[in-house]
Amino acid sequence: MTSADLVTIVAVVLSWALAIGAVTVVLQRLLRRTSIVVQILLVVLATVAILVAGMVSAFNAMFISEADLQVMWFILAIASVVAAVVAVLLGVGLARHTNRLAGDAARIGRGEPVAPQRKMTSELSALAAELAATSHKLEESRQREQAVEAARREMVAWVSHDLRTPLASMRAMAEALEDGVAEDVSGYHQRIICQADQMAVLVNDLLQLSKIQAGTLVLDYQQLNLYDVVSDVIADLAPVAASRAIAINGDAVAPTMVSADGASLSRAIRNVVLNGILYSVPGSTVSVAVTSTTAEATVEVRDGCGGIPAEDLPRMLTAGWQKDTGRTKSRYSGAGVGLSVVHGIIQAHRGALEVANVEGGCRFLLRIPAGQESRGLAV
Questions:
Q1: Which pairs with CB-CB distance under 8 Å and at least 24 residues apart come from 201-204?
Q2: Minimal CA–CA distance to 336: which of 144, 149, 147, 159?
């Protein structure tokens, strides 16, 4: 075979390849919504067609005998049929896998769990694993949502109870005053004020919690001395602690400057100290300490509650959760939102709230990063 014959064969084969390839691309675009079996079959047939066209061109250029040409046509026909059958089988298997993955996606949409699929190509196996992981994450998200919804309903019921009880009491005392049957008028007035204070604390806690959960809590950063903040909290809660025979020890409160929102941080510290007073056994001590490093300031509150069961520790910061469903009454909020408010405030300061058991009680750590910018921040 001369060089001219070789060049002619190559040119003819390339011409057929380009023409058949262009037709195949057009057909694939027209048939892009059909089954993947058709797509694979089309690719295989195009490959076979290019091969046949090239071989026929070569045969004609080499001027082989008619008998040999018939044999080659017979061989090409068998090879084409086998290639088409193999393409269909492969396409059917691939379509079955893709249909299985589509079914997994539909099950994820219905909220059903999905298990990883095996015996697939590496790409489809990776997709199946991703679908399984997504299903697992969605299931965890649904469980968290259900838990939050259950806590919300429980909290609404408790808040309704906490509001209804003082309202009924206030109404009864007001009617007694109106009818002139109250012997201790001044005492009735004081009790009405206490009931109003109880409802005000509860409403303020709920308002703060709603802002935190809605992401609308605005912090006004300013330079504060935690010694002053904690001292004010201790002075404010000292009468409550004395009435319950609880001592408050603030000897370990060191002067510490931080950049924080004074009102919300004071509320957070107050809620934790009050929580310790309300749940500590009479005769015990609630200790408050303030320490600092170059990275953060820490407010530590230890109480004498006797400890929290390990299974209840993860739920301590859940809004509306209370271990004691009987709900010990006080003039303060009992709806289970106090620690949730603390958690939200500390998170808004880019800090962390930690709860752990210690000997004789619990320890709450309020960690506040140092170096916060002195500006308003919407959380």
A1: 201/331, 201/332, 201/333, 202/159, 202/162, 202/163, 202/333, 202/335
A2: 159
Q: Is the pLDDT of residue 257 over 50?
A: yes
Can you tell me the distance from the alpha carbon of 68 to that of 284, in angstroms, rounded to the nearest whole number? 107
Average pLDDT of the chain is: 78
Residue range 78-101: average pLDDT? 76
What does the pLDDT look like over 186-239, one tens digit per residue? 888 888 887 787 777 777 777 777 776 666 677 888 999 999 999 999 998 898
Buried b or exposed e, range 53-87, using 16+ CB within 10 angstroms: bbebbbbeeeeeeeeeeeebeeeeeeebeebeeeb
Q: For the residues 35-61, what does the mean pLDDT come to?
A: 74
